[in-house]
Structures are given as C-alpha cells and as structure tokens.
Amino acid sequence: MDEVKDLEGWLMPWLNHYVPQFAKLAYTGIALALIVIISLGIHFVLHRVVLRWVEGRTRGTQRIWRRAFFERKLFGRLALTLQGIIIYIQAGLWLADDTLLLPAIQMAANMWILLYALLSLYSLLDALLDISRQRPAMRAFPLRGIFQSVKLIASIFIGLLIVSTLIGKSPVILLSGLGAMTAVLMLVFKDPILGLVAGIQLSANDMLAVGDWLEMGRYGADGEVIDIGLTTVKVQNWDHTITTIPTYALISDSFKNWRGMSESGGRRIKRSVRLDAASVRFLNEDDLHRLQKSRLLDSYLHDKIEEINRYNREQLADMSSLVNGRRLTNLGTFRAYLAALLRQHPHIHQRMTLMVRQLEAGSEGIPLEIYAFTNTTRWVEYEGIQSDIFDHIFAVLPEFDLRVHQTPTGFDMRMLAGQSEPALKKAV
C-alpha cells in the first residue's frame, strides 16, 4: 500500500542507519505504537467528548427514542464497533504485508467488530422494545418474543462468522456442514422454534397481549400477563405470585382471556339463591295489599291483577278451589320484584342481558338465579355490588314469606333433641 511504502520508505533508512540489525522489528514497534496512540485518541474523542455531549442532550429531551437508545448503550457499543473497524484499517495501513502480527491483529479486530456489532443489535432491539411499551397501540404485539428470535438467529450467524474467521474458512462451508445437523438443531432449539411460531399466531389472531387477564387452570395461572417471551409467558396472579407458561402451550391448550369482558364495560353476575320449596304459596288479599306499598311492585301488581281477574272471568273459574283459575304466587312476585330492582339499580348495565330466572328444582331447593352485568369491570367494585344485591335479597325474603333452603346443621339437631325430651317426659 502507498501509505505503508511512504512510512516505511521514510523510516527504514533512518532505522537501518542506527539499528540495522533490528530495523524491521523497530519499524513494527513504531507502527504498533502508532496504532495504539491513534486508537486511544479516537476512544477519548468518542467516549469523553461525543458520547458525553449526546448524553447531556438526551437528559434534557422529552423524546422517548433518544433516551431509550442511550439507556440501552447503543451509541457506546456502536462507538466500540467503529473503533474495531479503525484498528483493522490501521493495521493494513501501517503494518507491512509480510509482518506476522498483521493477520493476528486483523483477526482480533474482526472478532471485536463482530462481537460489538452483535451487542449493538441487541441494544437496538431492546431500545425498540422499550419504545413500543410506551405506545398503547404496540402493546398488543408480542415483540419481545420476535426480538428474542432475531437475537438468537443473529447470535448463531455471528458465531459462525467468528468460527470461520478463526479457522480461516468460508462461512458457506460451515453452513453446508450444518445441513447434516438439522435434526439435532431442531431438537436443541425446539422450544424457541415453537415459541416463535406461537408468538406469531398469538399476534396474528389477536389472542393475547401484555396486560390481558389470563386464566389457565392447568398451569395455575389466573392474573395479568406481564411478559410474552420467546419460550415463556409470565402471568402475575392476583396473589402476586408469578406463573410461567410455555408460549406454545397457549396454542396447543385452551385458556380464557378476560379482555373481552374488560373492553365491554360490564362484568357478569350469575349467582343463585336457593329457596325452600315448602315456603312457596299463593298470595292472599292481605299479602297483595301489603306488597302494593312497594314502589317497585305497584305497577306490576296492578297490571298482573287486572290480567288475572280478566282471565278468570272469561273462563268462569270457580275461585273457591285453589286448583281453579290463575293466582299470583309469592315466588313469581318475588322474581318480578328482583327484575325491577335490577332495572333501576345504578350499578347494573342496562344495555346487557338482564334477567331473573328459575332453575330446575332439586333436593337443595328452588334455585332463583340473578343473571345481569355490572357497569364496572373493577374486581373490588364488582364484588361489592354483587354482595349488596344479595344482602338485600336475603333481607327482603321474609316480606314475601319465603325462606332460604338450608341443610340442617348440628345446632338444628340439638334444638330438635332439646324440644323432644320434654315431650317424652310428659308422655311418660
């Protein structure tokens, strides 16, 4: 090279005059010293001047991308990559082609460049991930898993280049040799490959995103998704424990995503109160007179009584017998009361399904189910609303002469035994 020839042509006569036996070695030492001095000077300028100036401007900016790039050390690693390139160029400029140190320095510089280029890519991907987390529109995409896949592929590629540099062979030869190891590689990287495919499917089908409420009983997961990685999904349960689920399990197994509930603005109440079948009866005049005082039942009872009386007159029903005609029951009236209560409740969503239905009776009584939606999805508020409604239900049951069905307890048995003892003594 011309620069080497100029430097060598200027120094060699002087070195041959003073140290003829060590002229070649002295020239190599001077070239190495020149490489070191220039490299240190460039390092000082880049890290002590340029990067500090960039850091000062970054601290005062409100732009997220600038802060993310600097916090992930992207600029520092790019500067180190540039320094490796400069060392490689200097070795070719100042050292002669027949110098034994030239291939060693260039090989070391090559590995330096490859390593810090890989780290720079890591920093870039991490910074882009930080930026995406600040934007709500990007949170739905499992970028972390995709970026981890890119990191894995880049690491394998850089590793092949480093090995090819060390052995002095083309990376194409190594890649052709890897073809025979495909089955082994598939086995070793099975989880990352399955995780990458699962992450793409989750994103393409909008099945899961960070922040969703996920419930997966098989893995004991019931909480908020905090991270979607290449091989695992982390779920913070409501008791603040962390459950990790293999990413591909979200494709192969079934799970429940509560996002639809959260976005709808309403959360379902589906709970029953079991009534004692023996307490169900027809309402008499006194009952009707008492219940008509209720604001929620006044309109219902007025219309229902007119409808029943008109039907009985048309059918000429003999009302002296309970098996004839139509009558109001305390259970049906109570069901109408609950429906009216829910329709005027300030915390019940009126645009969603709302009903009070009677389920199939059994040995545990008659289930009367409340099926409605609250107008909030917050867990604590939802539970409070639901509890308030059922508190009222239990308290108002005696007004309709209804009883909750309960299995006899030990206390009931002792009371029955205590009542039977005086009767037995009296009989004796």
In short:
This protein is 61% helix and 11% strand. With 428 residues, it is of the alpha+beta class.
Explain the overall architecture.
InterPro entries: LSM_dom_sf, MS_channel_C, MscS_beta-dom_sf, MscS_channel_2nd, YbdG. Its main location: membrane. Keywords: Cell inner membrane, Cell membrane, Membrane, Stress response, Transmembrane, Transmembrane helix. Residues 191-259 form the Mechanosensitive ion channel MscS domain. It is a multi-pass membrane protein. This protein is an alpha+beta fold. Among the domains are: 2-134, no CATH class; 268-410, no CATH class. The chain is 61% helix and 11% strand. It is built from 16 helices and eight strands. The chain has helices at residues 2-18, 23-59, 64-71, 74-94, 101-133, 143-167, 171-178, 182-188, 190-204, 249-252, 259-264, 285-291, 295-315, 330-343, 379-396, 410-427; strands at residues 213-216, 221-228, 232-237, 242-246, 256-257, 267-275, 355-358, 366-374. The strands form two sheets. A five-stranded antiparallel sheet has the order 4-3-2-1-5. Strands 6-8-7 form a three-stranded antiparallel sheet. Strand 1 and strand 2 (221-228) form a beta hairpin. Helix 4 (74-94) runs antiparallel to helix 5 (101-133). It is elongated and about 130 Å long. The chain starts with a helix and ends with a helix. Residues 1-5 have low confidence and may be disordered.
